Amino acid sequence: MTGDSSTTGTGGTGGDASAEPVVAHASAPATLPDSAPAPASRRRPGGRAVGLVLWVLGGLVLAMTLVRAVPYDGVTPLAQVVGVTPWVVPLALLVAAPALVLRRRSLAILCGVALAAQVAWVAPFFVPGQGIETDARRTLRVLTVNAYFGQADAAAVVRMVHEQDADVLAVVELTADFHDRLEAAGIEAVMPHHVDAKVGTGSPGSGLWSRSALTDPDTSEWSTFAMPAATLDVDGTPVRVTAVHPVPPLPEITGVWHQEMADLARRAHDEPLPQVLLGDFNSTYDHASFRAVLGDRFHDATRTAGQGLNLSWPVGEQVPTFLDLDHVVVDAGMRVDDLASLVVPGSDHRALAVTVQVAP
Known about the structure:
By secondary structure, the chain is an alpha+beta fold. The chain has helices at residues 40-43, 47-69, 78-81, 88-101, 105-122, 154-164, 176-184, 187-190, 254-270, 288-294, 301-305; strands at 138-146, 168-174, 193-197, 205-210, 215-218, 229-234, 237-244, 275-280, 299-300, 326-330, 335-342, 351-358. The strands form 2 sheets. The chain has a 6-stranded mixed sheet. A 6-stranded mixed sheet has the order 5-6-7-8-10-9. Helix 2 (47-69) runs parallel beside helix 5 (105-122) and helix 6 (154-164) packs across helix 7.
């Protein structure tokens, strides 16, 4: 019996010779079209890890900018961190530049806005203020020193008074021992008039020394460290001078610091005489509490001089000096000249000497 001639096999010889054999072809591998998106890790340079780091740093820039913008700093941690505001500028640049290069546009825009605000706050310190009219003004050279709980070199302070030709010296963190050492070094020979408060009471006090008579002294103990004030005559113009030293804004006493700054602001603005406030304010210009002391009446000599930031604390070998805590604050109508930041042996603060020009 013969086979069915219509049946074809895959490998047999029977069947229709004219029919084309069925050939099984393997499927070709699928290829991505040219328009297919690249993997997410290759879509932006740098990858996810770099992007995450940039956003974390950018978040810090934005947070610090918001802290500076808030008009209140009487709580922790605002009072502790707002002082480093000037250092946000290089951080913002550090984030914004790579964000642009790596095409993180949203982050670059946010950092750019924050950077613009930070520059607006810092730039005035590098722009000189109004010109000096020495022919129409009387001058008062003031010097402020933090004695570091009496550990500073008293003899060096007296030499500084001579070298700076100072008319007024304010000393904060003044102890009874440091007071005696100042006298032994000859402070009374150049500045025979002085007023002090809370010296030798267990907490550091403050004192004022002057070449000319100090009248109407105020030694009331309205603050923790004392802030004595007195009036002196500047070529016929009475000027009220105050040695300033509120407590530092440590987390456990931030409320005390804020209250003492508010009390200082109230007392200063209630005083009708022209004033100079000098000392360790334990705050920077970026603190809202310090700007409240200034209000629309007073000016920070460092900012007005336009010579840059006066970084005054801490002074030492282990930590770089990064905060501007020591100030000379002058009244409306006064101008400043010849601002000098000086090293005081044994102190953790730099001293500040400023020539104040008083309108007649």
